[in-house]
Amino acid sequence: MANVLVVAEIKEGEPKKVTLELLTVGGRIASGLGGTLNAVAIGTGLGGIETKLGAHGAKTVYVADGVASYNSEGYTKILADVVAKDGSGLVFFAASSQGRDLAPRLAARLDAAFAADCVEIDVDGGKVKVKRPVFSGKAFATLTMDGTAVVSLRPNSYPVAEGAGPAAATVAAGGDFGAVKAQVVDVVAGQSGTVDLTEADRIVSGGRALKSADNFKLLWDMAKVINATVGASRAAVDSGFAPHAMQVGQTGKTVNPTLYVACGISGAIQHLAGMRTSKVIVAINKDPEAPIFQKADYGIVADLFEAVPVMQKEFEKLLAEA
Amino acid sequence: MNIVVLCKQVPDTESRIKLKGDGSGFDMDGIKWILNPYDEYAVEEALKIKEAGKAEKVTVVGLGPDRIVESLRTALAMGADDAVHVKTGDDYGDNLAVAKALAAAVKDLNPGLILTGRQAIDTDMGAVQSMVAELLGCGQINVVSKLEVDGGKVKGWRDVEGGAKQVVESSTPAVVSANKGLNEPRYASLPGIMKAKRKPVAVKEPAAAVNKAKLTACSLPEERKAGKVFQGVESVPEVVKLLRTEAKVI
After folding, report:
1. 3-class DSSP state for residue A3?
2. Min CA distance, B45 vs chain A (Å)?
3. Of A195, A218, A233, A251, which to mutate for an interface test with B (greatest number of B Cβ within 10 Å)?
4. Ramachandran area for residue A306 (φ above 0: left; ψ -120 to 50: alpha; else beta)
5. Where residue B191 falls among pLDDT bands split at 50, 70, 90?
6. With 70 as the cut, is the pLDDT of residue A191 above it?
7. Taking a contact as any Cβ pair under 8 Å apart, which residues of chain A between 93 and 122 contact chain B?
8. Given the DSSP bridges, would you call strands A127-134 and A120-124 parallel, antiparallel or unpaired?
9. Angle CA(A17)–CA(A23)–CA(A25) in degrees, nearest 5?
């Protein structure tokens, strides 16, 4: 008998999509553990959050409202108090910047089993069992967790079920950080309106063949049409065409989109590792021998500077029809 | 102030990963081992802080079997002063067990700053640094691409979603994990490599690990098969159509 506690991430009053994914799969895990699905929300402007999280299955929502900025130690304290109250057998995070920062600290505080970036989660003989990529997706490891488990789930790993349930009951959680050593003193905004690569459903990525930073505009223009975000290969990043935040691959980000369009990327093993779980891969490359063609669902042997503008027009046409 | 850099040895990024015959783990035969690339950024940053006169000493600490001393020597050859080898078997324990053993070793060194990479490129957990921070009661600043050290404080620019940066300030001692972009790691010079051979490596035996997250199966991903290849820019309209009618992703 143990509950599942989803650590919700809320942006402008709305739960992020990955939080709804956690609630959807978390409901099944809670049944397996013989407990209930609950959630915790920390932030500001959280009025009505019990309706939105309840609609996706949360029975109780612990709310710490009025917490203005993220703090790893402060959030750890709030969450540890909630876990003690809740009797959680699984504390379930998104593998986001915040989740990756916070979840292991909480695991150490709780002296709990920990696994990051999981892509599957189940219950086996009363224990939480997870599958996660290792070596940047070149292999998978299955871990069986003893006792309380702290797990983060990679976005886009599970679908979101239609939300129509009743509002959850709310319980006020203490928002006091206690003494902290580190705090956020400033936030420098990134490019506005773009979804992060790790959460993106569609990605258009460019390699060294783009030849310059300016040429990435070509990719951004096409990405806009299909509501995608833009990534880059290590070669493009190392050549100074794109910032490291855009790098997909073993020393960059591992992505999990529905559609990955690789433009002028030859497909080094490190890059393939970072994007191999994409559901559909399209590759555009001048070189018919490029290794990426061995992994792509659709390969186009063509110069990206000619093919990308045509592809953009075709997407525009297709979406205008719909 | 002394700086401790936590270093892990990992398979080279070019490695092809194989399973053991019985599927109980990964077959590491013939693997080329390297210092974790993200840890190189941490070593470089520690050396730069020392060269700026803000630290007296850089100690690298690594946990694992005897072969990891080779990676500790890589860091010593870059310029680290000394090393601690927390000596274990090949599979010591889960990340919390590793964090506990490392935290104990770090505590004895009384550092003002603990640096490491944002994640090891084999297990990809990115967990040990936050766990060490918690176990030592320190502030943590993870995934930084810029760092400033000023007296009893450190300030790190943390890479978060969408290219944004979260600026976090912590009192010392603090744990900071390095992202790519923080600096350009130096190559070890030949004199550096010769000197590294004589630098001290202390050996510590950790307590037995309590392993709560146990590896129970391994698998390889299904190899993606090559799909359809089209010639020339005139094929683009057809591919876009297939993305809707066949792949159903648009």
Report:
1. strand
2. 18
3. A251
4. alpha
5. very high
6. no
7. 96-98, 100-105, 107-109, 111-117
8. antiparallel
9. 105
CB contact under 8 A, B243 and A111: no
Cα-flanking dihedrals φ and ψ of residue A111, to 5°? 55, 50
**Could you report the per-residue pLDDT of A276-303, keeping only the tens digit for each?**
889 999 999 999 999 999 999 999 999 9
User: What residues pair up with B154 in beta bridges, in sequence order?
Assistant: B149, B170
Spell out a b/e string for B59-88, using b for 16 or more CB atoms within 10 Å of the CB, else e.
bbbbbbeeebbebbbbbbbbbbbbbbbbbb
Beta strands B82-87 and B57-64, pairing class: parallel
Which CA distances in Å does B179 have to A146, A187, B170, B211? 31, 17, 18, 28
The tokens of A298 are what? 């659709």
> Are B156 and B168 within 8 A, CB to CB?
yes
Minimal-distance CA residue of chain B relative to A139: B220
- Distance from C-alpha of B152 to C-alpha of A121, rounded to nearest angstrom: 43
- Considering only the C-alpha atoms of chain B, give the largest distance between any 2 of them, rounded to a whole number of Å: 67
Q: Which two tokens stand for residue B111?
A: 């550092």
Q: Which residues lie across from A4 on neighbouring strands?
A: A37, A90
Which of B17, B139, B143 lies at the smallest CB-CB distance from A182?
B139
DSSP state, B193?
H
DSSP output for A252-290: SB----SEEEEES----HHHHHHHTT-SEEEEEES-TT-
Pick the more confident residue, B79 or A193.
B79
Q: Which of A5, A28, A30, A9 shows the shortest CA–CA distance to A19?
A: A9
Q: What is the pLDDT of residue A192?
A: 57
User: Average pLDDT of chain A?
Assistant: 95
Backbone angles phi, psi at A33, to 5 degrees: -90, 0
Q: How far apart are alpha carbons A49 and B196 in whole angstroms?
A: 57
Q: With beta carbons under 8 A apart, name residues in chain B contacting A136.
A: 121, 124
Query: For position B223, what pLDDT does the model report?
Result: 83
- Going by their DSSP bridges, the two strands B213-219 and A139-145 should be labelled as antiparallel
> Band of the pLDDT at A137, cuts 50, 70, 90?
confident
The model's pLDDT over A247-268, given as tens digits with 9 standing for 90+, comes to 999 888 889 899 999 999 999 9
Q: Is the peptide bond before B173 cis (omega within 30 degrees of 0)?
A: yes
Residue of B119, B144, B157, B166 to mutate for A, most A C-beta atoms under 10 A: B166
Is residue B67 helix, strand or coil?
A: coil
CA–CA gap between residue B165 and residue B167 (Å, rounded): 6
